[in-house]
Each structure stands twice: as structure tokens, then as C-alpha cells.
Write the C-alpha cells for this entry.
Amino acid sequence: MATRTQESLSGFIATDPQLTYTERGEARFYARFGQENFRREDSGEFTKLDPSFGNLVLYRATAERAYERFTKGDQFVAEGYTHDYSYERNGQQIEGSEFVAKKIGHDTARTRYDVDRTPRRGLDREAGDRDAPARQQDRSFDPPERTRPVGEAPVLGH
């Protein structure tokens, strides 16, 4: 099975996040993000350069959760894609780029936090019921059964 990959982005939230709603009523999170830049010197030391900045957006429930949890200065890691856009405003052509995050979390290398593992209501996908009551999480793991005894080599062509 192939590993699914997406673009990733890490940085810090550079502005106060904004939560707005699209014409279709979907939540939209917006913030400027920054990324620190360094140059390696011949001596092996690093010189800190000016940060670079970009636009970060999220939509729907992810946008609402991010707005509740992120603030200016927070370090994050996000998965998504880069979206280039172009539009006209007051006769001027505006072009830009934004990172559309599908998933976002605090950068564990730079953030201290506590994890709440209580299941969120409405996410009981295993039962197929979005409004099922929260259930006790099973923390055990049962490895799959072996299909051949340990040490027995697979046979090709049979």
C-alpha cells in the first residue's frame, strides 16, 4: 500500500487569528504565519536572518477548532496544500499564495501542553453514528495474526 503524503508547513502564527464565514456559511480561519530563516556560516555557526511570512487558511470545523486553540506566537505544524490565487480589486490585479491547511497541530518540539484523550462527541466513526455517545477508548493493541509460522520463509509462485 502506498503512503499518502501531502505538503507540510511549520512555522509560527504571526498575527492574531481571524475567524470569518464564507458566503456559503463555512467557517474560515486566517492568519499570517512566519518561518525563521538561518544561514550556515563557514565556521559552522548559524546566523539568524529575517523571517519569511505567508498566509495560512483553514475551513469548516477545522477552522473553528484552530481558532479556539491557536494564538499569535504559537508554533505549529500543518498538512495541506499551497493555493495560488488571483482576483481583481478596484481595477488592480491581485495575485498571491496561501497555505490551505487540512490538519494543524502545535509543534511538539517547541510547545508544552497537555493532551485530552476524551473522545469528542459526534466522531464515533467505528459505529457509523455521528451522534453516538462517547465511549471508553481501548488503549490495548492486538497485533494481526500471523499467516505463517515464525521462521518459515514465504514461497513465491504458489
Observations:
- The CA atoms of residues 49 and 66 lie 28 Å apart.
